[in-house]
């Protein structure tokens, strides 16, 4: 096919995802607050605290080399740099924010100008597909993060393989993603909110029902906690398990490259 090893369906999915994030890039941060009632900020804060980036490591005096995949508008990357600098007093840690979508990266660049990392060599932006990170050498990264990104990837297992390749031995894979609510009553309430209210909010606030409908459906299709953990292990990582957030609406999965 024209798409090399990809099937037509995979190429269509990639285009659809690209369209969704191009449509919503400018309103992405405000809509996140609105739809999650601000809770995504607490999840992201908790995610970064649980990673504790920038801890001093005698074998790595240069600070951590971090890679935030599907980094979008930089929400995770700025938190990782802040934590490393302010909590662990490590101003040498660096991050590459990578995303497949140039509009989302542009929003990230714009936001970075309002932070202390504006034009800093500690912060780089890279346009790349998580399934093919050819710009990043093998065994070169201390921490790979992906937040609310992997469910959009066409070939998730391939992306996990790339995460494994670029991480150093001992390096950490950390993923924050929507997941499965375990309590059936809470699940019923949550489903009503997500399938009913979120596309409607998308329509009323930014005039785009379809993109938000896609986001809700992509959450529903993403593997549940146990299955996703199996995929991380299949890529070669040792996994300690996962942590459910807000009853399983989101979950943190981690893996260490042996
Ligand atoms: N990590 C950010 C956050 O937590 O706010 C942004 C998450 S946003 C919901 C999902 C991001 O995944 C979008 O910026 C989208 O462009 C990106 N994305 C989708 N498919 C991708 C792929 N194959 N490779 C890299 N990024 C991808």
TrEMBL record:
S-adenosyl-L-methionine binds at residues 73, 99, 129-130. Its main location: mitochondrion. The keyword Mitochondrion applies. GO terms for cellular component: extrinsic component of mitochondrial inner membrane. It comes from the Eukaryota. GO terms for molecular function: 2-methoxy-6-polyprenyl-1,4-benzoquinol methyltransferase activity. GO terms for biological process: methylation. Keywords: Membrane, Methyltransferase, Mitochondrion, Mitochondrion inner membrane, S-adenosyl-L-methionine, Transferase, Ubiquinone biosynthesis. It is a peripheral membrane protein. It catalyses: a 2-methoxy-6-(all-trans-polyprenyl)benzene-1,4-diol + S-adenosyl-L-methionine = a 5-methoxy-2-methyl-3-(all-trans-polyprenyl)benzene-1,4-diol + S-adenosyl-L-homocysteine + H(+). Its EC number is 2.1.1.201. It is found in: Mitochondrion inner membrane. Pathway: Cofactor biosynthesis; ubiquinone biosynthesis. Methyltransferase required for the conversion of 2-polyprenyl-6-methoxy-1,4-benzoquinol (DDMQH2) to 2-polyprenyl-3-methyl-6-methoxy-1,4-benzoquinol (DMQH2). Component of a multi-subunit COQ enzyme complex, composed of at least COQ3, COQ4, COQ5, COQ6, COQ7 and COQ9. Belongs to the class I-like SAM-binding methyltransferase superfamily. MenG/UbiE family. This is 2-methoxy-6-polyprenyl-1,4-benzoquinol methylase, mitochondrial. The gene is COQ5.
């Amino acid at each position: 096919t024209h798409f090399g090893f990809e099937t037509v369906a995979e190429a269509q999915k990639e285009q659809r995802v690209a369209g969704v994030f191009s449509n919503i890039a400018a309103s992405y941060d405000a809509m996140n607050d609105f739809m999650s009632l601000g809770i995504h900020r607490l999840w992201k804060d908790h995610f970064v605290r649980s990673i504790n980036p920038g801890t001093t490591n005698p074998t790595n005096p240069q600070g951590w080399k971090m890679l935030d995949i599907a980094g979008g508008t930089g929400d995770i990357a700025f938190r990782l740099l802040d934590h490393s600098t302010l909590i662990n007093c490590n101003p040498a840690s660096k991050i590459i924010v990578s995303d497949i979508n140039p509009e989302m990266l542009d929003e990230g660049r714009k936001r970075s100008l309002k932070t202390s990392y504006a034009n800093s060599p500690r912060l780089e932006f890279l346009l790349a597909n998580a399934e093919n990170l050819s710009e990043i050498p093998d065994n070169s990264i201390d921490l790979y993060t992906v937040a609310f990104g992997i469910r959009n990837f066409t070939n998730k297992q391939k992306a996990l393989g790339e995460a494994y390749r670029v991480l150093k031995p001992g390096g950490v894979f950390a993923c924050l993603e929507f997941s499965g609510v375990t309590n059936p009553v809470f699940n019923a309430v949550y489903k009503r909110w997500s399938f009913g209210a979120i596309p409607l909010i998308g329509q009323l606030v930014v005039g785009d029902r379809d993109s938000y409908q896609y986001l809700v459906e992509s959450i529903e299709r993403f593997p549940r906690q146990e299955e996703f953990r199996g995929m991380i292990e299949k890529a070669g990582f040792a996994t300690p398990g996962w942590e459910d957030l807000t009853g399983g609406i989101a979950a943190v999965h981690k893996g260490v490259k042996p």
